Amino acid sequence: MEPAEVEFLAEKELVTIVPNFSLDRIHLIGGDLGPFNPGLPVEVPVWLAINLKQRQKCRLIPPEWMDVGKLEEIRDRERKEDTFTPMPSPYYMELTKLLLNYASDNIPRADEIRTLVKDTWDTRMAKLRLSADSFVRQQEVHAKLDNLTLMEINTTGTFLTQALDHMYKLRANLQPGESSHSQDF
Amino acid sequence: LLFLQRVLLLVASDVDALCACKILQALFQCDHVQYTLVPVAGWQELETAFLEHKDQFKYFVLINCGANVDLLEILQPEDDILFFVCDSHRPINVVNVYNDTQIKLLVKQDDDLDVPAYDDIFRDEEDEEEDSEAESEGSEPSEKRRRFEEEVIERTMKRRQRREWEARRREILFDYEQYEYHGTSSAMVMFDLAWIMSKDLNDMLWWAIVGLTDQWVQDKITQMKYVTDIGILQRHVSRHNHRNEDEENSLSIDCMRIAFEYDLRLALYQHWSLYESLCNTSYTSASLKLWSVQGQKRLQEFLADMGLPLKQVKQKFNSMDMSLKENLREMIEESATKFGMKDLRVQTFSIHFGFKNKFSASDIVYATTSLMENIEKEGPETTNFIKALDSLSRGNLDKLHQGLDLAKKQLRAIQQTVASCICTNLVISQGPFLYCSLMEGTPDVKLFSKPVSLCLLSKYLLKSFVCSTKNKRCKLLPLVMTAPMDVEQGTVIMVGIPPETESSDKKNFFGRAFEKAAESTNSRTLHNHFEMSIIELKTEDRSKFLDALISLLS
């Protein structure tokens, strides 16, 4: 999967906005949205929120986990634990990037939030690499990792599976050395 | 109704127009209005674009072009075509003002237009003949005869009145249209529009600031108007940018901030070295007379007076010692007053976003102008325009930096040309005006085949000349400047600029003067520019044109 595809899926998440226009309920294939009234918060998918924000038709309200205190707690917890801790949203990385790129003026202390999320991401990726490393070393057959988000899986997924394939081929080539003697006759 | 129709944007080639265009484009994008953008550099291009597109579009928006001529006569549009004109050129043609249906002018309410009253210029034709038929009945021949005499008297009175009225009308129109000047920046008018629609953003405010600064850099508006407009923009700036003082909830560093600054008047000084900037800004160069040896010495004294070591001053501004940079503005101001430069500081705005990017409004103006008038051809005609337009967006920093480099080259070229003109006494008095002509083969002369660059050169030259000459009368004269435009076709470009005085009202009479001189000598001229005081001329006709101009203005 491409990271862009993962981001596309992330854009379906709901976020709160405060519109400055009014519109009746709109009926889309995925569901109904609205009605929109100026000044009243309404929940919409992220893709619509970003579009409206770019057209200056709304103000974005950051999700409640996007707060400096909470993110600090999450980051510290992630650093303490050896395994992966649950994340506030299965798409935390994509949402942070989208919201901070397009609506950083609606998010207080945006720079600190960006740093905290990046720290958390780095810690989790380090754990992932460590776990993959020990998996290969000990030649395990299967592993179970909880609380990984799709973006993280996607980042290592392709590499890991292809690397394991190569290693399997290399290992498989080691063994037939003994049985090939039979063909010399 | 705009949602269903497409709009054609015709934009003139100056920075104010570019900024206004950017604001309008942003507004169109918000509301999903489809538009087509056509840059035009002169009347011919305007007409061509109009003829090409008139069947497909009903709505035309003209930015910084079209207000000072009779649009309906020149373009001959159909009755259902609507023009929106946002133009800082004044005086606005009276037909455009009084037309109710097809021409909509976007002008700020308090802009003083001084338009003559309707009755003074237009007159219904029917008043004439009404009374004559009313008295055909009459019983007695003597009565009839008396009445006939009365009628004749009335008619002659009316004819005399009409002649007087027409003479007065010609006078009024002549006074009204004699001088060209500029009104409020189109970018500011567009920003007002956005504000009224509550769609104004910090980005648009910045473009309005750049538009206003362009008018100031090109000396198109009076100092008082500039200060008033800065005041207006300052209120908007505080409204948009007050969150920066609040530490708790301050904005991300990547957000764009605008700050009001009482900054130095030195061109591009933060992107250059202080020394270069002092040498290449017209104000300092003219006041210190840097084309002479004494001038150079005075510059050294000036720097010594401020305690700035030469080595520091000649390196890139950002690498100067912090201790020197801290009080730089106040120090320079103090020393400058000692050396006769009282106005070295000017009220302006600067923008910053990210950690590295800080630009002053005049930096952007210089960069965009040089991008737009870049003589290196990189593709079809409009590439330069589009590049300059793009450089105004924050995302295109590489174009902006390219523009800054080009601007430095341009400023250096201007200063060197000015120095050589003054030193070789190329500026001569022709009686009612000063005249200077750039020869082919002068270094960088190709740069000055473009109108805005030539105007900048002329203004700087006039400033320097006024500082260098001892002749009191010459100091008050306007300047006419020519430069070769196209060597193959044998044309020169000629600009006329008003005299350089403290309280100049920046009104320029050369537009009309050029027209009359061209008529009377049958010179082959091209009055293609939206500014009437810039024309193209065949080199052979130059001398007779000048003679006509001299006799016209004496």
UniProtKB/TrEMBL annotation, chain A:
The stretch of residues making up the signal peptide is: none
Cellular location of this protein?
Nucleus
Coiled-coil stretches noted in the UniProt entry, renumbered to this chain: none
Q: Which GO terms describe its cellular component?
A: CMG complex; GINS complex
Keyword Nucleus found? yes
Ranges where the DNA replication complex GINS protein PSF2 N-terminal domain occurs: 2-61
Q: Which GO terms describe its biological process?
A: DNA replication; double-strand break repair via break-induced replication
Taxonomically, the superkingdom here is Eukaryota
Q: Where is the GINS subunit domain?
A: 65-169
Q: Which UniProt keywords apply?
A: DNA replication, Nucleus
Report if keyword Nucleus is assigned.
Answer: yes
Q: Which family does it belong to?
A: Belongs to the GINS2/PSF2 family.
Function description: Required for correct functioning of the GINS complex, a complex that plays an essential role in the initiation of DNA replication, and progression of DNA replication forks. GINS complex is a core component of CDC45-MCM-GINS (CMG) helicase, the molecular machine that unwinds template DNA during replication, and around which the replisome is built.
Name the UniProt record assigns to this protein: GINS complex subunit 2
Automatic annotation (TrEMBL), chain B:
Q: Which UniProt keywords apply?
A: Cell cycle, DNA replication, Nucleus, Signal
Q: Where is the composition biased (Acidic residues)?
A: 124-140
Asked if the Swiss-Prot or TrEMBL record annotates the protein with the keyword Cell inner membrane, the reply is: no
What does the sequence similarity comment in the record state about its family? Belongs to the CDC45 family.
Q: Where is this region: Disordered?
A: 124-148
First and last residue of the signal peptide: 1-17
Q: Kindly indicate whether the keyword Transmembrane helix belongs to this entry.
A: no
Against Pfam families, the record matches this protein to: CDC45
Q: MF terms per GO, please?
A: chromatin binding; DNA replication origin binding; single-stranded DNA binding
- This chain belongs to which protein, by name? CDC45 protein
What does the UniProt entry say about where the protein is found?
Answer: Nucleus
Naturally occurring in which organism (per UniProt): Brachypodius melanocephalos (black-headed bulbul)
Q: Which GO terms describe its cellular component?
A: DNA replication preinitiation complex
The UniProt entry, under PANTHER family, shows: CDC45-RELATED PROTEIN (PTHR10507), CELL DIVISION CONTROL PROTEIN 45 HOMOLOG (PTHR10507:SF0)
Which GO biological process entries does UniProt record here?
A: DNA replication initiation; double-strand break repair via break-induced replication; mitotic DNA replication preinitiation complex assembly
